Amino acid sequence: NISLDRSAAHYTPSPKDESVFAENMVKLDVGVHVDGYIADAAITIDLGGHEDLVLASRAGLDAALELVGPGVSTADIGGAIEEAITGYGYKPVYNLTGHGLSRYIAHDQPAVPNKRMDKGVILKEGDVIAIEPFATNGSGRISEAPITEIYGFGGSRPQRLPAARALMKEIVESYKTLPFARRWLKAERAEYALMHLVRSGAVHGYPVLWEVEGALVSQAEHTVLILENGCEVTTRIG
Question: Quick check: 43 pLDDT over 80?
Answer without folding.
Answer: yes
